[in-house]
Amino acid sequence: MSDFPVFPPGFEFGAATSAYQIEGGTRDDGRGPSIWDTFSRRAGAVSDGTSGETACDHYHRHREDVALLADLGVSVYRFSVAWPRVQPSGSGPVNARGLDFYARLVDDLLEAGIKPVATLYHWDLPQPLEDRGGWRSRGTAERFAEYTALVAERLGDRVARWITLNEPWCSAFLGYANGEHAPGAREGTPALAAAHHLLVGHGLAMGALRAAGVREAGISLNLDRVRPATPDPADAEAALRAETQRNLMWTDPLLTGRYAPGEPDTFGELIERQDFRREGDLALVSAPMDFLGLNYYTPSTVRAAPWREPDPARRTAMDNRFEGVDHPGVRHTAMGWAVVPDALRDLLVSLRDRYGALLPPIHITENGSAEHDVPAADGIVHDADRIAYLESHLRAAAAAIADGVDLRGYTAWSLLDNFEWAFGHSRRFGLVHVDFPTGTRTPKASYHWYKAAIAASAAREHRGE
Ligand code: PNW
């Protein structure tokens, strides 16, 4: 008898990573530059001045990482394909050496009995496409579908599950509105065009995947559980604005084929024109998906704020008529993110309640925590806080299943400590400690805990419980 969270038979446990965060080898085998290579070099863009140039050197050490996954006992591994390896300039013929890397990775995973789950876009846009407008331009969505077709043609027979985009909210708003992520733009309407073109790119890529015979395809969204700070109706309205921008402007068009009620208004005065939205787009965007990927870390509590005219030098399309307030009385991770596992359960249930039969099965494609990890004298990171985070969120996930949510799997973020975007190496999410820059990998206590939880689940399933 163990105390590990209990899941139905067939529930899939996994671990996740993304290309730019772990691979390194940014100039190897003909890879072209991505917007993150460019952005990382900008002074002040990454807090510790690092970049993904070396990262975990996974490009050269992927066998070791597959061995870690095998030892962990996961049944799925979620990784991403770097577009600039496959098409160094973002369009045109395939760079065979780049695509070969993923073919080798996939073969090694299959040989280890691990199901590969491939994300096609985890933020590393080829720089030449950004030079032509990036996601502000519809052409990028079209190029994305062409790239998707090339990858699916090569790997579609061995990769069963595909994720088109990772967290388009981050790409659109952190990338083109508040400038915290590549390409670091602070613009108005173009961020909304980026949001729309990301959705169109997803729809076109779904078509390319279907044409290649892919049967399991979806998207990963970072959805937020938003609560009003007080019962004041002004705060309730602020929460709805936040909810619309964070969740509904993605899930409504994807699942219902309509933009959320009030969505154009949520950006208020900053929407000058929306002619980037074309007739027929929403039919594309709402192509049926086989699953919805959910990335969840922390909820938001918001209150009403007066409209503040954006500083012209720092223009932003973000609605600023709401602001986040802190969650007192709960632990916060090294990201400063409040730990509220019940919010994961509430979020899953609220998705089911809002979309009903339109909601496909859900996979949690990311969940985990950054902690102030320090290896002890024995060389091991004793990350009790990360274990508590994982355990409580797995329990919340199991509770949502008991509430009737069709949740099929959970991939922990992340297998490895890696390049945490604007925080560089200063935040660690790994189950495995990575010593930068030597790249030495050492499983943390949380890795051993997760391994035991997965084994307990497998043993229970074996006994037919
Ligand atoms: C996600 N935010 O990023 C990404 O999918 C991962 O690549 C990343 O490492 C992980 O979560 C941890 O941060 C996010 O500001 C980055 O709300 C920023 C935000 C959300 C998600």
UniProtKB/TrEMBL annotation:
<dbReference type="Pfam" id="PF00232">
    <property type="entry name" value="Glyco_hydro_1"/>
</dbReference>
<comment type="similarity">
    <text>Belongs to the glycosyl hydrolase 1 family.</text>
</comment>
<keyword id="KW-0119">Carbohydrate metabolism</keyword>
<keyword id="KW-0136">Cellulose degradation</keyword>
<keyword id="KW-0378">Hydrolase</keyword>
<dbReference type="InterPro" id="IPR001360">
    <property type="entry name" value="Glyco_hydro_1"/>
</dbReference>
<dbReference type="InterPro" id="IPR017736">
    <property type="entry name" value="Glyco_hydro_1_beta-glucosidase"/>
</dbReference>
<keyword id="KW-0624">Polysaccharide degradation</keyword>
<protein>
    <recommendedName>
        <fullName>Beta-glucosidase</fullName>
        <ecNumber>3.2.1.21</ecNumber>
    </recommendedName>
</protein>
<dbReference type="InterPro" id="IPR033132">
    <property type="entry name" value="GH_1_N_CS"/>
</dbReference>
<dbReference type="InterPro" id="IPR017853">
    <property type="entry name" value="GH"/>
</dbReference>
<keyword id="KW-0326">Glycosidase</keyword>
<dbReference type="GO" id="GO:0008422">
    <property type="term" value="F:beta-glucosidase activity"/>
</dbReference>
